[in-house]
Each structure stands twice: as C-alpha cells, then as structure tokens.
Design brief:
single chain, 290 residues, Nitrilase/N-carbamoyl-D-aminoacid amidohydrolase, 7 helices, 16 strands, 29% strand
Length: 290
Amino acid sequence: MSASTFKAALIQMRTGVTPAANLDAAVKLIGEAKAAGADYVQTPEITNIFESNRERLFEKIAAEENDTFLAAMRELAKKLEIYLHIGSMAVRVSPDKAANRSFLIDPRGDIAARYDKIHMFDVEIGDGHSYRESRNYRPGDLAVLADLPWGRLGLTVCYDLRFPALYRALAEAGASFLAIPSAFTQRTGEAHWHVLMRARAIENGAYVLAAAQGGKHENGRDTYGHSLIVDPWGKVVAEAGQEPGIIVAEIDPAAVAKARTAIPSLQHGRRFEIIEPLAEPAQLHVVGRQ
C-alpha cells in the first residue's frame, strides 16, 4: 500500500424523514467534497432517514438489495471516483427489524465493506429523554476492517465510541484510521463528544474521522453536530459547527507511525487476571501510625 497522503472530507447533515430529500442533500454535499479534492468522503450515521416512529420508518426503508438510496450512492462513488463511506443507513433485515449499517463503497461503485452497529443506544439520559434503538434495530456482532490505498480503516458507528475495547481491537488488527460517523444528542455531545473522540485517537495512535448529524431535525430531535477529524496525537485538525456542510483535511499515514513510535502503547498492552475480593474484608494495617 502507498503511504502517501490523502484528503478526507466529512459530510455534516441534518437528515429528515424523507429519503429522497436526504439523498438530494447528500449528493450535493458529496459533490462539494469532491470539488474540494477529497479522495475519501464520509457521511454521518443514518444518512438515509432520521425517523423514530416505528411504523413510518418501516414504510420507507428497504432491504439492501432493493434500496434505491444505496444504489444511487454506488453510482455517485463510481461517477466521482472516490471512496464513499455511507456512515450508516437504516436497512431492513427482517419484517420487524432494521440494521444500522455502514457501507464503504469503492471508486468502481462496488461495496468494499459493510458494518452493522454493534452497540445499541438504549439509555435514559435524564430530563425526560430516553432512547431505545434496539426496538427497531438489530445489533451486529462483528468488528470490521477495510483496506484503503493509504492504510486500514476500522468501521464503527456513534454509540460504539463509548466502548474503547472495540477500538483497541481494531488498532491491534492494523487500523490507522477509525471511522465514527454519529448522531450524538445535543446533551451528550456537549458533555462528551470532544473528549471521547480525542481519547480514541490518542490511546490508539490513529486518526479519528467522525461525520455527524447536527441541529433540529424534522422529527424534533436535536443533534450536536461538530463533525471532527482528529490526528493520532489527539489534535483536532478540522471541525464543523452545527449547520450542514463539509470539512476537509489532509491525512498523513506517516503521522500514525510517528505517534505509535513515540507512545508504543499498542505494543505494551498486557493480558491480566482479575483477583476477586475476599469474602471478608482484610484488616487494614497502616504503618507509622499509632
């Protein structure tokens, strides 16, 4: 593989409830990214539809082989001759379940990799806000890597961010770039977005590429935005605000090797056993005190 640099672009969207309108918005922004010289373009989580109502969601999504949104994205990648990473789409996998699925499409329009989001966002975050992603979506169970001309990409989605063991496994398997397309809530984004993204980059010595949803959506949900490109030393090299648009940065695979040489934590990681606590607490003996 070539170690030359490449240009990555992240698409920030405010996806609505109508796939056709979302397709038009995505195509426009992806075209802007290509015009800016991007070789790799990533869209956010649930690019095709942002719909929480179960009945309406299943009326508008299709199985992968019948999905016109995906077919259009494949044609676009081929036309623009780019690696187009659909951060994720809702695709039907059974009569009552969808997958939150990433697609990496190569410049020939072929699907180079698929990844189904592993960790479901089933949480109560307070202030009356609760989310039950598993009600509509079936979780994946496989971590996925894909080879780009410039290095290896690890595919993840949004809530996966909070499970660092996944990223360590991807990095140990050779990932130089960690994709984390997302739709973070406004509340959790304000508190955790930047620190978690930078942590995943630093602890793995890898670039983090995180396209995001941002703003007030048609279904009433607020997302944080702030799409980020973070380098392997933890520096934010490109960041969006909350409006739809693109960010672009030059990605240098040599920076990955440099960071991992300076802090070789991937080599120093050790397996260890957990010792269970004693059935009865031991007496504490403090030396030097009477």
